Amino acid sequence: MALTLAEKIFKSHLRDEPFPGTKVLDIDVVMCHEITTPIAINDLVARGKDRVFDPNKIKVVIDHVTPAKDTKTAQQGKILRDWAHRHQIKDFFDIGRNGVCHVLFPEQGFIRPGYTVIMGDSHTCTHGAFGAFAAGVGTTDLEVGILKGVCAFREPKTIRINVNGTVPEGVYAKDIILRIIRELTVKGATDCVIEFQGEVVRKMSMESRMTLCNMAIEAGGTSGICMPDGVTVAYLWPFISSEYPDKKAARRDFRKWWSDRGCSYVKVVDIDVTGMEPQVTSGYKPDEVKGVSEMAGTPVDQVYIGSCTNGRLEDLRIAAQYLKGKTIAPSVRGIVSPATPKIFRDADRLGIIRIFMDAGFCVTNPTCGACLGMSNGVLAPGEVCASTTNRNFNGRMGKGGMVHLMSPAVAAVTALEGKITDPRHYRKEKLR
Amino acid sequence: MKAFGGKVLFLDRSDINTDEIIPAKYLTEITKEALKPHMLEDLKGFDPQAPESRNARVVVTRANFGCGSSREHAPWVFEMNDINVVIASSFARIFRQNMFNCGMLAIELPEDAISSLFRHNDGTAEITPDFRNDTLTIISRRGRDTVPYRIAKFDKALVEAGGWVDFADAKY
Ligand code: SF4
Hints:
The structure holds 2 protein chains of 2 kinds.
Chain A: H1 5-13, E1 14-19, E2 22-26, E3 29-33, H2 37-46, E4 58-61, H3 71-86, E5 92-93, H4 101-107, E6 116-119, E7 133-136, H5 139-148, E8 150-154, E9 157-164, H6 173-184, E10 192-197, H7 199-202, H8 206-214, E11 223-226, H9 230-240, H10 247-254, E12 267-272, E13 279-281, E14 289-291, H11 292-295, E15 302-305, H12 307-310, H13 313-323, E16 333-336, H14 341-349, H15 352-359, E17 361-363, E18 384-387, E19 402-405, H16 408-417
Parallel strand pairs in A: 3-4, 3-6, 4-5, 6-7, 9-10, 9-12, 10-11, 15-16, 15-18, 16-17, 18-19
Antiparallel strand pairs in A: 1-2, 2-8, 13-14
Helix pairs in contact in A: 2-3, 2-5, 6-8, 9-10, 13-15, 13-16
Chain B: E1 6-11, H1 18-21, H2 51-54, E2 58-61, H3 73-80, E3 85-88, H4 93-101, E4 105-108, H5 111-118, E5 126-130, E6 135-140, E7 143-148, H6 153-161, H7 164-171
Parallel strand pairs in B: 1-2, 2-3, 3-4
Antiparallel strand pairs in B: 1-5, 5-6, 6-7
The structure holds iron/sulfur cluster (SF4).
The site of iron/sulfur cluster has 13 residues of chain A, from α4 and α12.
């Protein structure tokens, strides 16, 4: 029978089917951060079940509020830290080595094609960029994942998105995913996996594919997913080179996960990006998306570049091309958070950090902070933020604040002008 | 099993997200009890202190309820306010699973059935689910209606087991 990539993963990881339609899967990677894990840990302790199914398959980071901002967040970090030490979880990333989970864990080579991945975080769908089934779950699912290494799902249907055409200057993966979410709506992919296909996706870097998959949840999707190919092999090569004689062999092996010809999709959507405008959200829902020309001129108080959507080196580089040699509008607070220490270091080596600082940006340590309105850039009521993050919910970055989601390119030129601006009118400078 | 049923809080909007149910700033709490005062705090046009909010035991709402973050704090804040049932025309997947994982009820009904429940929105409505027969009864000054519902066998088993941890621990 012809299967989709997601169906192949379900088949290969099936532990049990307690009721028709409910599949209990073995989980390859259980990821934990300090916001959703401590209550699971406390509950396990209270139940007398303070155990982990396999310390090597559990990856732990403190990333949402780091350094701790108050007693409560310090306590959350402490619960997680003590637990990781107690169970000899060696992949534990504390301050100095920590970064935004969905950027750090792929960078560490923890995700492989065909894997099942869960985390107590809705943007876990990001990891599907590697051809994995990666789903955000609540604290109870996480707790069972930690204890037993299993998680229950309804077998998801798959929506296939074909992205074709010529990507216009000034348009990036973020614009494409915003455009797709507008098409699907915020609930269009509920209980579905979103499979990204087409020539545009095939040519994309892993970073861009992660940006696509990252926002699958904003359409309600369980996981985003891309076919693992030569780009995937190249990214993972430092971690898999001992497992394959050469890259070609790895590529051939990864192919087994590809959706079969003739497999069934609940929906197929064709998107032609030729002539597409950069996209910006206008309201409090991620499907309220407009072309940048319609939003141009909207004044902003803060510009934020970072997060698991757009805090990678590629994103910082795109923004820096627009910012080089310029300064941001005096009315704007510019904040950039490189998503991991490695990205920070690479951006520094490439002169990108310097460009941001010369332009008047505040460069923070790697953290989520501002993205969910917890630290490092919380908005005041009535303030507007141009942001490269993934959620524009009312109050997301601070009570009473307004968030416009956009690409790093739109965010950069918006910072220069102090109002939402079309990057296509700007010249990009060469970086070294 | 938890207790289900009682006075109804009607939330007449679609796409109510987890940030509106419990804002992210309270995610630094490490006990469920601490969440209690903050239910639906950022939901525009909603007064958490109104008697119909405080006395509610059941929420009835529209489409895509609980979209957004994976935070189980959303079901917990309802649980801490003795609301163990949410009825909607559809749910976001993670929220729905979190409800059942906690042994709570997330009941999906067709849109016209939801609209028929909303007709009872006169401040007196009470809903009693009959968990064994998969029906729920709504009573208000406007009368009485009984509506059948369907939940997956697995979800039903989770409610009976009191949640996923006990179910999984017994089985895997
Ligand atoms: S960057 Fe934002 S969306 Fe991503 S994991 Fe952190 S808080 Fe969540």
